[in-house]
Request: fold
Amino acid sequence: MIFYKTLATALMASLVIATSASAADATYDIVIVNGRVMDPESGLDAVRNVGLRAGKIAAISTDAMQGSRTLDAKGLVVAPGFIDLHEHGQKPENYQFQAHDGVTTSLELEAGTADVAGWYAEREGKSLINFGVSIGHIPTRMKVMKDPGTWLPTGDAAHRAATDAELAQIDQRIEAGLKQGALAVGMGINYTAAASRGEVLDVFRVAARYGAPVHVHLRYAGDKPPETGRAALAEVLSASSETKAPLHVVHVTSMGLRDTPELISMIRAAKARGTDVTTECYPYVAGSTGLESALFDPGWQERMRISYGDLQWVKTGERLTAETFERYRKEGGQVVIFMIPENVVRLAIADPMVMIASDGMPAAGASVHPRGQGTFSRVLGKYVRQEKALDLMTALRKMTLMPAQRLEQRAPAFKTKGRLEVGADADITVFDANRVIDRATFEKPLQYSDGIRFVLVNGVAVVDDGKLVDGAFPGRAARASLVE
Reply:
């Protein structure tokens, strides 16, 4: 037995030497040299050279490398490209802002779509970065119940219980979306307030049959009994435990508000009991959603402990009054909601269990929440460098490896994302850790982040020396396997 172990060790050593020696002689498409290579999976944090070939990471070595192009990353961090699990603005302009924020894979997994095949087809060959979507309970319910809302429900899908026939249609359409390769099932129970617990449980059962995680906006937010974030979390933890469908709780801070520490503790305890549950947050004290949605049905002030002046109408930037609230609610449109205490934001970002995701909104017009443009750079600049709330490797893990691991059971392609290792996809972000920061603000949200020097998607540069590359569309569909 000792002989075989010794022989195996010798063979592995010779393979490492051969790989290292051949790296210097190989020609790569792109070589990134002298960078601080950080890989959250292996823990590598050292100066290395990285060779890329055919959209993959082909070599990581201290040896010299030759490539068709060389990027000098001296003094810069070379990291896996950031994976955003929660981005509603799946449009070319949003992808440009996200690329400048280091994102290489942008996913709409909360609201999702009712037409998975069509959604992917619309972006194929036209995308700056990788893209993916869930089959959404909200848009599916809206379609089945003929709701007049455009993005969020305003009629029956929000306010009426579904009939047995409608429930059957909802489940059938969700199953069809999963067969078409949806990465997950998206649910926004807060926006479909009339959906019963039985309806929610049925959706979890469908997801469980396909090993799909359910990305859930909880039924309630805040700490006013009985409609608390804790009660809403208990509902979906129970559904996950009963059905064995994986659960992902979106933007935990905007659901827990002051009770966020309790929600995180509940998630941690559920994981310890064997429930497959994860969560995320964004690094801002404000959320954003449609003023016409069920979230602002009577009682919203007590539930969220805010008032009209805590709402900002994105079209004009004005804070609302009772009069403008009623007028704009009839019109419909986005508001920014200042409701999350800063200490809660910091706590969630620092917690090693909580992923980072933007919840970005479509970047249309002059005003929008800044999170879709600056989330990842804000974490790296404000919370890692300036406030030292968490270390750099932990932050990178929450932006890369953890999101990939959340999806890789459902979509094995994610096993080669979120890592900086030989054989992984060449989705890479190179940034200056001493400079990276968000520039998007609530007053001027459409600003590119600073300090992101190079972003490569499938081995193709989309941000080159801090500037967007025109005409580059290397983004690919991030999709689960199709089922006939």
